[in-house]
Amino acid sequence: MAKDNNPNPSKFKISPWLIYTAILLVFLFISFATGGSNLSEPAQLTSSKFNVLLEKGQIEKVIVYNKAEAEVYLNAAALKDPANKKVANDIFERPNKGPHYTLEIGNDQIFQTKLEKAVGEGKLKDFNFLQKNNWSDILISLLPIIIIIGVWIFIMRKMSGGAGGSGGQIFNIGKSKAKLFDEKTDIKTTFKDVAGLEGAKEEIQEIVEFLKNPEKYTNLGGKIPKGALLVGPPGTGKTLLAKAVAGEAQVPFFSLSGSDFVEMFVGVGASRVRDLFKQAKEKSPAIIFIDEIDAVGRARGKSNMSGGNDERENTLNQLLTEMDGFGTNSNVIVLAATNRADVLDKALMRAGRFDRQIFVDLPDIRERAEIFKVHLAPIKKVEGLDLDFLAKQTPGFSGADIANVCNEAALIAARYNKTAVDRQDFLDAVDRIIGGLEKKNKIITPDEKRAIAIHEAGHATVSWMLEHAAPLIKVTIVPRGQSLGAAWYLPEERQIVRTDQMLDEMCATMGGRAAEKVTFDRISTGALSDLEKVTRQARAMVTIYGLNEKIGNVTYYDSTGQSEYNFSKPYSEETAKVIDKEISDLIEGQYERAIKILEENKDKLNQLADILIEKEVIFKDDLETIFGKRTFDKNLEEVVS
Ligand SMILES: Nc1ncnc2c1ncn2[C@@H]1O[C@H](COP(=O)(O)OP(=O)(O)OP(=O)(O)O)[C@@H](O)[C@H]1O
Ligand SMILES: [Zn+2]
Questions:
Q1: 107 in the same domain as 212
Q2: Most distant pair of Cα atoms in the chain: their distance
Q3: Of 256, 254, 251, 247, which is closest to residue 188 (Cα–Cα)?
Q4: Rounded Cα gap, residues 518 and 523, in angstroms
Q5: Cys-Cys with 330: which of 47, 234, 326, 634 at CB 3.0–4.6 Å?
Q6: Same domain for 346 and 261
Q7: Residue 189 located in a structural domain
Q8: Both 204 and 281 in a single domain?
């Protein structure tokens, strides 16, 4: 997310430059004051020369400082006496000002008697003993303290993460670092700026309604939600969406990152959380947006071997307390973003906290075209630029990547002094961004795309053909998380699973790999999670549910969980061999079956893969146009009704 200027003027701040300048001045002053022989300083007089001047009656007055040093002022007669020119040229250059000489005196008592005698003889007009503070001495004795304070300020600034430039964090280290965006001046974002993400927008629309019109819900006794979690890969527009909610509802927006809470000092995180909620409540209705909430929200107490996470846990606990604490009518809604919902502490997800999860996925081809449209709007481009074409060139790109492409294209065009950004500039920009993404392993080559499409189409085709496989609702080749594609099934709520149902499901799971074999006659590593799933299923059939003839009606399942502590298996060596063989036979059997089904439907498999490559996501309707209606589903409906 963008780190804008901080529009919160209430904080007391000392510019770091002020501190640095002050320290510098002190050093300059010290070196100046202790620097000794400066040209404009009066010359030092020896005691004998002083006696000569005094004897001649050429001294106007003498001021003795600290009983140690005297300033000597000459009178007009002395300045006219050419003999003095030998003593120093200096006194002729500033005849009226003085002091003309300085003098180190020995014993102050003797010196005083000498001066009194001269005054008595009319040879000296006046003298005076004074006490003077020697600033340079004081400063030198304070120097170590000044240096220590300076170093301390420097360290504090570093530790409170003052990279953002604003100083003075020592004074508000326990204050929240949230940036406040005012709804009237700073937030221009609305849902119009968020392209695609239809589902997410629809879900979050409700929160906008709550913020705009809370009474409508509370009057009916309903509770306003306190938080929602935006889950999705980086750069997919989570921050943008949260900001758009604030823009739509016209409420202030507090934005910060989870890591902003974390500090090395005990108690700072918790105190920042408190401060944040206090500020938000003062401005309510308001939205708090916490990016990367996993920095504080990781599950507590799991890997607590080091015990070093106490501070983070305190922070998390404070966050939970605050979310529980504010009443239903405080109208502060917390939106948090993460790309790892799985690592979050389950307590965060409990009712009344982040009980809503909104998925913000990578855009498919149609959504990418829409995102291009948003980001091309402010760019001077040639007529008739084909958005769909650009969308096609950018598989696997996030919204942020696309924003990057548009910006990069404008820069490239500017380099060639063009008046409008053209298609080639965009292609060059895409190439450049891909270069960056390739390093992050995020990019999919056309070959890979085809392989993924065939794989997913394989799952879809096999499950469509099998009576007991769960009905398919959506297939996509937009990568999400670790997997490169996904087929979504509507899981039936079965309490008892029969052997034929399990076998059909295993067959559908093997459909991906089987399709690769049938189409390319080679298999890939892309089916790891399929293999894992099918192996787990087969093992369960054989060793847990007693569904295998060779093993028979035995289960090696231990519901007490005791066996986890046993190192030995609950069956003999021979049985283990049989089990392994049976599992492998089961899986191979279903693999062969999937291959057979796909051989028979090869044209449809390819047709489906082509549509997938084209659209990246297909739904049940598309499958029906290829395969025709699934007859089993009718049976299913009959059974249900
Ligand atoms: N759906 C979208 N529509 C328009 N622009 C988008 C979209 N998604 C991302 N962008 C662009 O990408 C930029 C970065 O997105 P944003 O910061 O919201 O992503 P994020 O999901 O919060 O990422 P992260 O997890 O890295 O914080 C946005 O400012 C916007 O320009
Ligand atoms: Zn698969």
A1: no
A2: 137
A3: 247
A4: 9
A5: 326
A6: yes
A7: yes
A8: yes
Q: Which whole-number Å values give the CA distances from 233 to 360, 361, 396, 420, 506, in the listed order?
A: 8, 7, 11, 33, 30
| Structure-token pair, residue 74 | 């000459």
Spacing, Cα 227 to ligand 2 middle (Å): 34
Position 16 in a domain: no
In a domain, 77, yes or no: yes
In the block, which residue shows the tokens 């300059």? 28
Map tokens 């060596």 to a residue: 573
Q: ipTM of the assembly?
A: 0.92
Contact 177, 256 (CB under 8 A): yes
- Coil, helix or strand for 281? helix
437 lines ligand 1 (CB under 6 A): no
Tell whether 263 and 379 lie within a shared domain.
no
516 is catalytic: no
pLDDT exceeds 70 at position 416: yes
How many Å lie between the centroid of ligand 2 and the Cα of residue 639? 30
- CA trace torsion 140, 144, 145, 147 (10° rounding): 110
pLDDT recorded at residue 15? 58
Q: Which residues pair with 487 in a beta bridge?
A: 475
Whether 446 has a binding-site annotation, put simply, is no
| Whole-angstrom distance, CA of residue 580 vs CA of residue 542 | 9
Options 370, 456, 505, 616, the catalytic residue: 456
Domain extent at residue 403:
365-439
Domain check: are 519 and 533 in the same one? yes
Give the integer Cα–Cα distance in Å for 32 and 312. Answer: 50
User: Is-contact 356 341, C-beta < 8 A?
Assistant: no
**Position 270 in a domain:** yes
Contact status, residue 464 vs residue 623, Cβ threshold 8 Å: yes
Q: Is the CB of 374 under 6 A from ligand 1?
A: yes
Q: Which residue among 100, 132, 164 closes a domain?
A: 132
237 is known to lie in a ligand binding site: yes
How far apart CA 516 and CA 84 sit, in angstroms, is 111
Residues 286, 381 share a domain: no
Contact between residue 349 and residue 231 where contact means Cβ atoms under 8 Å apart? no
Tell me which amino acid residue 253 is: F
* Digit-coded pLDDT (tens) for 165-192: 444 444 556 676 777 887 777 778 888 8
Q: Please state whether beta strands 332-338 and 227-231 pair in parallel, antiparallel, or not at all (unpaired).
A: parallel
Q: What is the CATH number of the domain that holds 382?
A: 1.10.8.60
Give the tens place of pLDDT for each residue, 513-525: 999 999 988 877 7
351 and 382 co-located in one domain: no
Residue 324: which residues within 8 A CB-CB, separation 6 or more? Answer: 352, 353
In angstroms, what is the span from residue 270 Cα to ligand 2's centroid?
Answer: 44
Ligand 1 lined by 258 (C-beta under 6 Å): no
Q: Quick count: other Cβ atoms within 10 Å of Cβ 511?
A: 35
- Residues 457, 587, single domain; the answer is yes
Domain count, the chain: 4
Q: Which of 382, 410, 439 is the last residue of a domain?
A: 439
Condensed to tens digits (0 to 9), the pLDDT of residues 438-486 reads 555 556 778 888 888 999 899 999 988 888 777 777 787 876 555 556 6
Q: What is the CATH number of the domain that holds 507?
A: 1.20.58.760
